[in-house]
Design brief:
Helices cover about 75% and strands about 0% of the residues. The chain has about 260 residues and is an all-alpha fold. The protein is rod-shaped, with a radius of gyration of 33 Å. Its main location: membrane.
Length: about 260
């Protein structure tokens, strides 16, 4: 019993930590809860955009291997389009190019017909790039504003802490350090939300630039194929043939 009483007395005498994330929310009131909710929505939206855009970009890059092999082996663009997945970026460019070719044939001026065909493919390419860029402005907004939202929560928390300290009439370090450190949690949350959003934006933007280069090259090839009546096609890289095993050298004849 004596040991139990000593441990209980030591536990009561030990300083109790009355500060933490839950305490900061309780003391911050509506503003603290609103700040955390807004940052939570921003964080969820950032990761949602990151994964959905990554899968969309990966799908387009994976489909490009079919474009380089099976598509250009077809005798015509219409037959090659059947080998591409429906509603894909590459199928859209081909379909828009074939449709533009039919409409351009109605123009009497060959120069105007070529410009119409070139503009139609460029418009199709731009629509794909715009669709790929969807969601990136949200990531940029989160990366730019979430630190300031967290800082706003910190400022309000420090203001409440200073008011409470003033009413208590004590400004010792134990009265100041706890509430101020508690208020800085909001700034840390803002940075925690901003950094992944900025990294995701730069990563997705770099992949979009790579896809845009591939789309531009493919659109140019389609335009050249249409303008030449199917004579111009990019060189399709054939799979390297397996080298035949080397035959053992014949033994020299003995004299």
């Amino acid at each position: 019993m004596l040991i139990v009483d000593i441990l209980a007395a030591a536990a009561e005498a030990a300083p109790q930590n009355k500060f933490g994330f839950a305490e900061a929310l309780k003391q911050g009131g509506f503003i603290a809860y609103a700040t955390v909710i807004i940052l939570g929505i921003m964080s969820f939206g950032s990761f949602y955009i990151l994964f959905t855009k990554w899968f969309e970009q990966s799908k387009i890059m994976r489909q490009f291997s079919t474009v380089r092999t099976a598509f250009w082996k077809a005798p015509t663009l219409k037959e090659g389009a059947t080998k591409l997945e429906k509603n894909s970026a590459w199928r859209q460019i081909v379909d828009d190019g074939v449709k533009a070719e039919e409409e351009a044939s109605k123009l009497k001026d060959p120069t105007e017909a070529h410009d119409w065909l070139h503009g139609s493919l460029a418009r199709s390419e731009a629509s794909i790039n715009a669709r790929l860029a969807g969601g990136l402005p949200f990531l940029a907004t989160v990366g730019a504003t979430s630190p300031f939202i967290g800082l706003f929560g910190t400022v309000v928390g420090i203001y409440r802490a200073l008011i409470a300290i003033g009413l208590a009439g004590s400004a010792s370090i134990d009265k100041v350090a706890g509430p101020v450190g508690e208020a800085l949690i909001m700034t840390a949350l803002g940075l925690l939300v901003a950094v992944p959003a900025v990294l995701a934006y730069n990563y997705l933007q770099a992949r979009n630039k790579r896809i845009a280069e591939l789309l531009t090259g493919f659109s140019t090839d389609v335009l050249a194929n249409i303008a030449s009546g199917g004579a111009v096609k990019p060189t399709v890289a054939a799979a390297p043939a397996k080298a035949a095993p080397a035959k053992p050298a014949a033994a020299p004849a003995k004299s």
